[in-house]
Amino acid sequence: MTYHFLTLSFTGEWENLEPEFIKSHFRESLIRLRIAILIAVFFYAVFGFLDAMIVPDKKYIFWVIRYAVICPVAMLVFIFSFQPVFEKYAQPCLFLMCLAGGLGIELMVILADPPATYSYYAGIILIFITLYTFIPMRFLWAVTCSWLIVAGYEIGAIWIVDTPRIMLINNNFFFVSANILCMLAGYSIELNMRKRFFSSFKLEQEKNKVIRINLELDQRVKERTLEFLTANEQLSKEIQERIGAEASRIKLEKELNRKNKLEAIGTLAGGIAHDFNNILAAVIGYSELSLSTLDKKSIEYENITEVLRAGMRAKDLIRQILAFSSRTEQKTGPVLLGKVVTEALKLIRASIPASIDILQEIKSTSLVIGDEGELHRIVMNLCTNAYHAMKDEKGTIEIRVEDTMIDQEFLQTTDPLIPGEYVTLTVGDTGHGMPPEIIEKIFDPFFTTKTVDHGTGMGLSVVHGIVKQYNGSIRVYSEPGQGTTFVIYLPAAREDTERTDQEIIS
Questions:
Q1: What is the pLDDT of residues 70-106, one digit of tens each?
Q2: Is 406 helix (H, G, I), strand (E, B) or coil?
Q3: Which of 74, 100, 111, 226 has the lowest tally of Cβ within 10 angstroms?
Q4: Residue where a domain stops, chosen among 163, 183, 205
Q5: How would you write 77-89 as a 3-class SS string?
Q6: Cα dihedral sign, 479-485-486-492
Q7: Is 455 in the same domain as 485?
């Protein structure tokens, strides 16, 4: 939010908000304005009884000022406020009404003889308080009005009435001080109103953005569902035509099952993105609003920054789920795997019991070609599975990142890989372990040994897909009662890519 220091009007990229704020300010304060005018007229009229006691010889002149000039002017403004055109002329009308009230009291000060004249000085200060706080006059109009009242007093006290110098100095001190304090109050009131208006505007923008994203996601889900239905219809027709050939029938059934799984993943992706986006919109929106009001050096600013960073990572997760469903390629680049692991472990440490120890050993400073969000997800999935494998929530999770040279001899005992330098990510636990028949199925989509409330069977399937996409390999070592260890091999980035990335970082 940017605004002019003196006028408080919106500037820069938010300049277009000024007309909307003026309309909003007028509509919100119209009822309060009418009530304030009625109260001001009431007290201005009631004080006429004091005229009869303080200046009985001039009470009729004072009553003419009160009842024939000031009060009628205020009531005319009150009546005019019910007209549609009042919105356009509200500020000039309020300006003239408050100026007339202040000059009316100053005229009473001039006409009254000491010591009666001193009783009317407080009325000028009341005018200052009224026009800055109760009357919804904008700051610049209020400042102009109040200083004209002060100037009116100076003219009357110096050139019309022979005011003693000590009394003039004393009155000026109180009038100027009261005016400045009221200016500060009026400035704060309007600034806070503008900040509330700006916050409401930003929240409305976020709501509209969420609605637009939801509509887009709904459309994408419908399109994908229609594609899957069309594919299923075509496959069903082909199966019926080739029912006589056993080998073809088996092949088509496998293809159909694969399409059904993709349809389920697509539907799941759309549902997750739809619901998760509603939550993320509030998290990201309120985090950005909070950051705009906090000191960048405060611990609160740092904490909210971490919340916003986690929200953005979750936003990337939605994109990855949709990309997995539609099989679109992700943007990749050089990533420091050790840094990703360190950041992921900060989140993991806060989400698992303290009774589970986490040991980390980052020996590698090599880069890998990939997407930081997907690598972060690999670490989170493997560590979450390790935590769920602990009995009674006690045990140890060990994470290591180190460099490895793969040669021909090693390739004979693992998945096909290109010989060369690799970065290995090892995640081991002291949990209950797995038998061989379970290990064979753990990378299948939707296969899980957990209860319904603790897993969907997609975690290791996604990890396996990401590793294969990066031309890597994943191996599992586990025995019942002996824990489980996952070892992931990712090709190290070329030397020239590493050097360029380090230069960018530095």
A1: 999 999 999 998 998 988 888 899 999 999 988 888 8
A2: strand
A3: 226
A4: 163
A5: HHHHCCCCCHHHH
A6: negative
A7: yes
